[in-house]
Amino acid sequence: MFTGLIQAVGTVRSFRRLADEAELGVDLGAMRAGLRLGDSVALSGVCCTLVPGADGPADAAGPQGTLGVFRLSAETLARTWFDALAPGRRLNLEPALRVGDPLGGHLVQGHVDGVGRVVAGIDPRAGGTLALEIPDALWRYCVEKGSLCVDGVSLTIAAVEGHTVRIAVIPHTAAATTLGEARVGQAVNLEVDVIGKYVERLLAARFDR
Q: What is the pLDDT of residue 65?
């Protein structure tokens, strides 16, 4: 479980295909020191597990011990934009929420529901209004003043206009995450509010429609 408050930005160092899966190496910076094999980390909104690298079982890989290795399943590659990962790409990082930590964002599972597209970008320092095109299957979960996780960032929807949502991004969020780098047409991982999905399923079962 995560909260959608980004702790750092990491850089992809390697991306290696393994049949229909992939092995991903990310420079986690100082965050790596507090992680152990088997720990969960949200990489731009995708819950991934820290695993040994294919070239060795070391628990602290990389020249400075800051590299984290993750195995990406076929489901992850199909459901996210991670199929297009390449060395140099920057990812938003958040370690798993611990009991007693403040829930500053909203409940985020790291289970991506689908991929959206940037309609209007923001300034990387000043922020602004980020506009996203939402897939048909997800737009009904987007409500004004509701929460939406975009590439791992907990955001509040300011307006819903058809299948487009508009989000006000403050300067700190623009500078401390990759959202300020997003360009028009770029894909972003989306996770809608899990509470809304559960309510929908329960009501459907109760009223049989």
A: 87
Q: Which helix (H) or strand (E) holds 199?
A: helix 194-207
Set out the domains of the chain in order of their start, with CATH numbers.
Answer: 8-95 (2.40.30.20), 114-200 (2.40.30.20)
Q: What are phi and psi of 176, to 5 degrees?
A: -95, 0
**Distance of alpha carbon 71 from alpha carbon 94, whole angstroms:** 17
CA distances from 146 to 28, 64, 80, 197 (A): 30, 41, 22, 13
Can you list the residues of the chain whose pLDDT is less than 50? Answer: 55-63
Query: Of all residues in the chain, what percent are helix, strand and coil, respectively (each to 5)?
Result: 20, 40, 40
The amino acid present at 81, given as its one-letter code, is W
Contact 155, 189 (CB under 8 A): no
Please report which helix (H) or strand (E) contains residue 154, including its range. strand 153-161
